[in-house]
Write a structure and sequence with these properties.
heterodimer, A: 867 residues, alpha/beta, SH3 type barrels, Rossmann fold, six-stranded mixed β-barrel, 39% helix, extended, B: 420 residues, Arc Repressor Mutant, subunit A, 3 domains, five-stranded parallel sheet, two-stranded antiparallel ribbon, nucleus (chain A), Origin recognition complex subunit 1 (chain A), double-stranded methylated DNA binding (chain A), zinc-finger (chain A), ATP hydrolysis activity (chain A)
Chain lengths: 867, 420
């Protein structure tokens, strides 16, 4: 619900300045009252803007907040009600987004926010104009009561515990030193970068003082040691013995408590009241899900000059706080990661919590109460969801929120030491980037794409969550080419060889650059093996057993022209974009002359060139240059080239083949056992295929090409066909019990579809004249023994055939048209029709196929005579 | 007058209705889409499964021109856009327009930007656009959005280096994306055109579009031509129209007529064109379709431009044509205007009439060239004058003979000359 304020304010250090300037201009400096036009009475006390409190407490001191805080005090007793409220509010907010001028509509609870929104927009605009204006010192007063007086920041303002601190940081701070840490021990807790923590929302609620480590039973209100079971609906904990009837052990699968069951049936349920004098204590989890607490992920940790510890947190949101509210498929313990960050003082951390990806979450069962699931990222500006990329978590984050650039220092390996952050420079650069963003197109240059964060679903589609996969669907998913298999069977020998090669090259003291040429037909796992080796090596680098290196991957077919490879390599190495000529010069300097500029340049560099044959130019200079570098004494360059042809080095100039052809590795086509192993290793645990079916597919593919992609695709297609058949059966006949297993028949159908041109079917169903035409072609072929004929001869044959079999001869021009139509489908090959009788014709398929297709034509039985 | 106008109204309306139907592929292909064997449901299954199961697919739609490949695809896409309004973005390319890889990629980037309201830059390079495409594929995959690439005239994309197809298909197998590539082509051997590494990445689903069977065609005719019961047309008129139409459709002569037409080309698209013509011949005063309408339409479709051309020729032009034919019979395969003139003169050595001067003959010769009854044998020698360039007869002797026979006032001598 705090979604409406633009993020920019928080993320770029410049923006806040502007807005502060403007705020000062627009309103009184002492306490910036939010909206002079908004009368207090308009704000109904029962519906405070929840999440936005963070912001309001920051910028503005006004009555609405106090109102809301009063409300908050009464909140803890009625957690469920609060959730309902939130639902209501979020509904309203959704409505409100479209109407900016909600100021005029009374009774909407969120007037302050929309007002502020307007204001911000204005300030943003003004800010660009008035850049370099006075840096104003704006003091903020926060209503949030201050409890922790221990460490104060040197600021001319009151300290806020829950600040959007970036916004308040004035420019003079930037010149000071900060100390960044990777790990901080604070208040007996150990906090790493990347940890998830509960964050205090405010300091007034008395219940916050006693934070129960153990959850209480909802029936007997004691924690105790005995086993508790969690209701999957209301998340309440129950002692096994307190249940009616008591359970002996935790049941398998989902379990819903009696109260929830009764509630679902529409009964009125009375929850057991806590005993006199003892208030039911809510756990942190409950508070979080009732949005009385916040959760955040630590992005970076540092110590301010004054010794206070701060961290930058990325907020998590509960589904109720998003624009579309809680959806039916949301899980109870689901959170969304936002792209909204704030600097928070370490004081406000309560303790760790555990936010997991779905995979980890599925495995976790005994981790206690503070376990949450997070699958999606929520963009607070566009109100859209996006899955969090699984593999490269960190890189993806940087792409989504490009304003995190200045925080990358925390990711560097040596971030334990003191470090000067040149904020001034960073911020100006950032500012320029911001300024130009307005003019930058999404697909424009420099490798940055602007506006990609716009993309996202407004709602997580239901079919993603609620759909339970059938066996066949699971099989299809694992057979997908894009799914990375857990292991790569059948290429161990080759991978070892590559591994040995790369290791030998890197670990060599002089690091004499070398070159490896890998060849093999498509789909035999060349690129995949190399990438797998590189992954293994990367983990070894992380473990510290080998020296770090840099890895550059280039695909020849994805380059606009061969020369562009210099540019791509240079960009990958340094991050700068230059023209290819300049890049060639710089690379030459680096590799041949041994000039090292940065400290990174010292590392050995592994260059993987996929589809190497595309780099062959007329004078082959590109290949020569690239392959010449490794022979230079200080280059530290290792080139791995991949191509299909076995004899590519021999086809090239001798000076190139002597540099490339020394070490070669051949990826032979897979044989059928290997293909079978590949398929069955993917299908492990899924009982969707007949054994013979897999064997059939792999034998067929092995006989034709030995291409693993083809084999996988055939199996996937077969599963598809089976799935289609079953789904159609279900929709037509309810009772039918089709076995959901892929049989030989389906595999055969898939193979037919993949490997056979459909010309026989087309010939069978084409028009009568086309059939006569084709028959005449075959007849002519037999008669003359020549594959090629002219239209004139053919037309004579057709007219003979027609007259002798009692068909009306349609006329030459009609026949010409028929011929051209067949030529379009490439059943015959023909010259353009304007050559008329001189047009040359030829069958594109064997005449036997035509004979086979046309033998049993019902309306033209006489065709068989001529075939 | 007023009464007449009122009477005219329903037939005019009916005509409009029929024409609208015939030019609307959605209406034409809708009834064919129900059965599970139809291409419609197969295609819909493949696309929707890649939406719901988040996988990549590539499909080829093959079939002769006019068999409704694009029409069925559009039907499926519009249905899916209704079903999953947010989850699909469709990118349409045509091989005739975007056969060049660079320009195709630019167009993809443009359409993606349009779809997602991003700013598009025209000057972005090939590399930028391809990186943008990959980034978009990934982002959309993460946001559960499917990008559908429709490549019409797919065979034209499968030429030269095929960078576009390679980068598209390679991205689809390496990035976590949801994308469907649909290639539409009338070439049956289009997958053989793909380069081997592109073919290896293509998932080779093929849907074959075939002309309808006889029974289907009959159902089809009735479905399209009969007027709906619940329209603004007067009820009595509708009933009578449908009754008469039934009679026409049941007529043996009509069936024969349709068969003659279908024996030439049996695809749905052609049938639609024929029906459109027939409907347009409907007499508005009568207001009902009759067999005559279909007959006229048939005769107007079965034209023989070549023999009609001969009917328009002058006697001199006929002489020239006959001379060329005689030269060919003499196995003189290469001839130009001068050799034709020699032949022409040799005819007139013993025949007297119809003797024209050389320049008149040249005019006639040029006219024949323009009518494309004859043509130059090659494109070389543009700077040579017309008389010396070798020509070829484009009309076959048999056609010429038939043409002469049906010519109004063909000199008997010509027929004799051509026969000899």
């Amino acid at each position: 619900m705090a979604t409406e304020t633009p993020k920019k304010q928080l993320q770029s250090p410049r923006k806040p300045k502007q807005s502060l300037n403007n705020l000062k201009v627009q309103s009184s400096p002492l306490s910036i009252s939010l909206s002079p036009q908004t009368p207090q009475s308009l704000i109904p006390p029962q519906a405070p803007p929840r999440r936005s409190l963070r912001r309001t407490s920051l910028h503005f001191s006004s009555t609405p907040i106090e109102d809301s805080i009063e409300y908050e005090k009464s909140d803890p007793k009625t957690p469920r009600k609060a959730v309902e409220e939130i639902g209501k509010i979020s509904g309203q907010s959704r409505k409100g987004q479209s109407h900016e001028e909600r100021v005029k509509t009374p009774k909407t609870p969120k007037i302050p926010k929309s007002k502020r929104n307007d204001e911000n927009r204005k300030t943003a605009k003004l800010g660009i104009l008035g850049e370099g204006m006075v840096e104003a010192e704006v003091t903020f007063s926060s209503v949030t009561p201050e409890v922790l007086e221990t460490k104060k920041r040197k600021r001319g303002e009151d300290k806020t515990v829950i600040p959007r601190a970036m916004a308040t940081r004035s420019s003079k701070k930037k010149e000071k030193k900060r100390v960044y840490y990777k790990k901080v021990v604070y208040d007996e807790g150990e906090f790493d970068v990347g940890d998830d923590v509960y964050v205090k929302r405010r300091e007034d609620a008395s219940s916050d003082d006693e934070v129960p480590e153990m959850e209480e039973c909802r029936v007997c209100f004691r924690a105790g040691r005995s086993v508790m079971i969690e209701c999957d609906d209301c998340l309440g904990g129950f002692h096994l013995k307190c249940l009616k009837p008591p359970l002996k052990e935790v049941p398998e699968g989902d379990w819903v408590c009696g109260f929830c069951q009764a509630q679902k049936l529409g009964k009125y349920v009375e929850f057991p009241e806590p005993p006199e004098g003892k208030k039911r204590v809510r756990t942190l989890r409950e508070k979080l899900l009732a949005s009385d607490l916040w959760a955040a992920r630590i992005e970076s940790l540092w110590k301010e000059v004054d010794g206070s510890f701060w961290f930058r947190g990325r907020w998590y949101m509960i589904p109720e706080e998003t624009a579309c509210g809680r959806q039916p498929h949301n899980l109870r313990r689901e959170l969304y990661r936002t792209n909204d960050c704030a600097d928070i003082e370490m004081e406000s951390i309560i303790r760790h919590c555990n936010v997991m990806s779905p995979k980890e979450y599925a495995k976790a069962n005994d981790e206690g109460d503070d376990v949450f699931l997070c699958e999606y990222e929520y963009d607070i500006h566009w109100h859209s969801f996006k899955r969090i990329a699984e593999i490269d978590n960190d890189e993806a984050d940087d792409e989504h929120a490009d304003s995190d650039e200045d925080w990358n220092s925390s990711k560097e390996p040596d971030s334990g030491t003191d470090e000067d952050m040149e904020y001034e420079e960073e911020s100006t650069r950032n500012a320029q980037a911001r300024l130009s963003t307005a003019h930058l197109a999404a697909n424009s240059r420099k490798g940055h794409f602007f506006g990609l964060q716009k993309i996202g679903t407004k709602k997580i589609p239901e079919h993603v969550r609620c759909h339970k996969q059938t066996v066949l669907e699971r099989a299809k998913a694992t057979l997908l080419l894009a799914t990375l298999p857990k292991s790569l069977p059948c290429r161990n020998k080759e991978m070892e060889e590559i591994m040995a090669f790369v290791k030998g090259a890197i670990c060599d003291d002089r690091c004499l650059g070398r070159c490896l040429y890998i060849h093999g037909v498509p789909g035999t796992g060349k690129t995949m093996s190399v990438l797998a080796v590189m992954r293994n090596l990367k983990s070894e680098v992380d473990a510290g057993s080998i020296r770090p290196y840099c890895f550059v991957e280039v695909n020849g077919l994805k380059l606009a022209s061969p020369e562009n490879i210099y540019r791509v390599i240079y960009e990958a190495l340094t991050g700068h974009r230059v023209s290819w000529k300049k890049a060639l010069q710089l690379l030459n300097e680096r590799f041949s002359d041994g000039k090292k500029i940065g400290k990174e340049d010292d590392r050995p560099c592994i260059l993987l060139i996929d589809e190497l044959d595309l780099l062959v130019t007329r004078n082959q200079s590109v290949l020569y240059n690239i392959l010449d570098w490794p022979t230079k004494p200080h280059s530290k360059l290792i080139v791995i080239g991949i191509a299909n042809t076995m004899d590519l080095p021999e086809k090239l100039l001798p000076r190139i083949s002597s540099r490339m052809g020394i070490q070669r590795l051949c990826f032979g086509p897979y044989n059928y056992q290997q293909l079978q192993e590949i398929i069955s290793s993917r299908l492990k645990g899924i009982d969707a295929f007949e054994k013979q079916a897999v064997e059939f597919a792999s034998r067929k593919v092995a006989a034709i090409s030995g291409d693993a992609r083809r084999a996988l695709e055939i199996c996937r297609r077969a599963a598809d066909i089976a799935d289609y058949r079953i789904k159609k059966q279900i929709s037509t006949v309810n009772s039918s019990t089709g076995k959901d297993i892929v049989t030989m028949a389906e595999v055969d159908a898939a193979i037919q579809e993949m490997f056979q041109a459909p010309h026989v079917q087309v010939m069978k169903s084409c028009s009568k004249l086309s059939k006569i035409f084709l028959t005449a072609m075959v007849y002519e072929l037999y008669k003359t023994g020549m594959g090629e004929t002219t239209f004139e001869k053919l037309a004579m044959t057709i007219s003979c055939l027609c007259t002798s079999n009692g068909e009306a001869f349609p006329g030459w021009d009609t026949i010409l048209k028929v011929g051209c139509k067949l030529g379009e489908c490439r059943i015959i090959l023909c010259e353009p029709g304007d050559r008329h009788r001189l047009q040359k014709l030829q069958l594109n398929f064997p005449s036997d196929d035509v004979a086979f297709a046309l033998k049993d034509t019902k309306d033209l039985p006489w065709l068989a005579k001529y075939l | 007058m007023g009464r007449e106008k009122e009477k005219e109204n329903p037939s005019q309306k009916a005509l409009n209705l029929l024409r609208t139907r015939l030019s609307n592929p959605n209406f034409v292909f809708k009834p064919l889409s129900d059965s599970p064997d139809s291409n419609y449901s197969k295609l819909k299954f493949i696309i929707s499964s890649s939406i719901t199961e988040a996988c990549n697919n590539s499909i080829l739609l093959l079939g002769p021109r006019g068999s409704g490949k694009v029409a069925v695809l559009e039907l499926v896409l519009s249905d899916l856009l209704q079903q999953y309004p947010e989850a699909i973005s469709v990118i349409r390319l045509n091989g005739l327009l975007h056969g060049d890889d660079n320009c195709a990629l630019k167009e993809i980037a443009r359409q993606l930007c349009m779809e997602h309201q991003l700013l598009f830059s025209k000057v972005a390079s090939f590399d930028d656009n391809s990186q943008f495409l990959i980034a978009m594929l990934r982002e959309c995959g993460l946001a559960h959005k499917t990008i559908i690439f429709v490549l019409d005239e797919f065979d034209l994309f499968a030429q030269a280096k095929q960078r576009l197809l390679y980068s598209l298909l390679d991205a689809m197998q390496s990035v976590t994306s949801q994308a469907v590539v649909i290639g539409v082509s009338c070439r049956l051997d289009v997958d053989q055109l793909l380069e081997k590494r592109v073919r290896s990445r293509f998932s080779h689903r093929k849907l074959l579009f075939l002309p309808p069977s006889k029974e289907d065609t009959e159902r089809f005719l009735e479905h399209i031509l009969s007027l709906p019961k619940d329209s603004s047309l007067p009820h009595s008129y509708t009933v009578e129209f449908n009754g008469r139409l039934k009679n026409v459709l049941a007529d043996e002569r009509f069936k024969e007529l349709i068969n003659t037409y279908l024996s030439f080309n049996s695809t749905i698209g052609q049938l639609m064109r024929f029906l459109f013509q027939a409907v347009s011949y409907m007499d508005l005063d009568v207001g009902f379709l009759s067999l005559e309408n279909f007959k006229t339409a048939l005769s107007s479709t079965q034209r023989q431009p070549k023999s009609e051309c001969i009917k328009d020729c002058s006697i001199l032009e006929l002489y020239l044509l006959v001379c060329m034919k005689r030269l060919e019979v003499k196995e003189q395969n290469s001839y130009n205007f001068n050799s034709v003139m020699t032949e022409y003169k040799s005819i007139h050595d013993f025949q007297t009439s119809d003797n024209y001067a050389g320049n008149v003959c040249l005019r006639a010769f040029e006219h024949l060239l323009q009518r494309e009854l004859i043509s130059f044998t090659d494109n070389r020698g543009h700077n040579q004058s017309v008389e010396f360039r070798p020509v070829k007869l484009l009309i076959s002797p048999a056609e010429l003979y038939h043409g002469l026979k049906s010519y109004r006032s063909c000199p008997a001598i010509l027929l004799k000359l051509i026969a000899r």
